[in-house]
Amino acid sequence: IEQALQGRAAGVYVTQNSGQPGGGISVSIRGISTISGSTEPLYVVDGVQILPGTATNSTSPLSGLNPSDIEDMQILQGPSATAIYGSRATNGVILITTKRGKSGEARLNYNFQYNVQTTPENLEVMNLPQYAQMRKEFHALAGGTTPIEFLDPSILGPGTDWQGELYNNAAMQKHQVSLSGGSNATTYYMSGEYLKQQGVALGSGFDRYNFRVNLDNKPREWVTIGTSLSFSQTN
Length: 235
Prior knowledge:
Elements: H1 2-5, E1 12-16, E2 25-29, E3 42-45, E4 48-50, E5 70-76, H2 79-85, E6 93-98, E7 104-117, H3 128-142, H4 162-166, E8 170-182, E9 186-198, E10 205-220, E11 223-234
Parallel strand pairs: 3-6
Antiparallel strand pairs: 1-2, 3-4, 5-6, 7-8, 8-9, 9-10, 10-11
């Protein structure tokens, strides 16, 4: 979600802090301020405030939110932000509105996404005999003791390609289903999501389970009662 914010408004800078799946991303709006004790903006999802500092560098504060549920994103900065949210909005405000149901026939949507993530390009490094020869030449010039196993590089094998051992192509899949509809008096929007992302580095990955229900009822012309319930679990 934070990556989608890049370029939406002037002065919005998105920096990825970690390469791990689901890793944290820093968002700064018009520079950095230390008044609020954090450099992150205030996130407001359907009126619910997510204060800065509620996530670590390894976790995004919005990692549990399904991007498919988002209807609109707006960015407030400067006096327009602090006038509404006070000092908590010193670093700006990101307003996120999720989808609501619309009157009419029920609409059922199902989306499936499957990606293959490729490994990064390997860095050119020495093999084991080249490394042993380098160690010998270095110690001959600068002094020091060369390990016994490096004295004759010609008898050494190529060694272990640790980049090949660590990285491999990884799959990412996402299942998302939503149901919306309602009458002139009551509308509903329900969605569920399952995201499984394997990391290109062995032992890394990101899983997310998400469920959301948005209900709106208009018993009178002058009043509307609504509720937004969401549950998410990230691993």
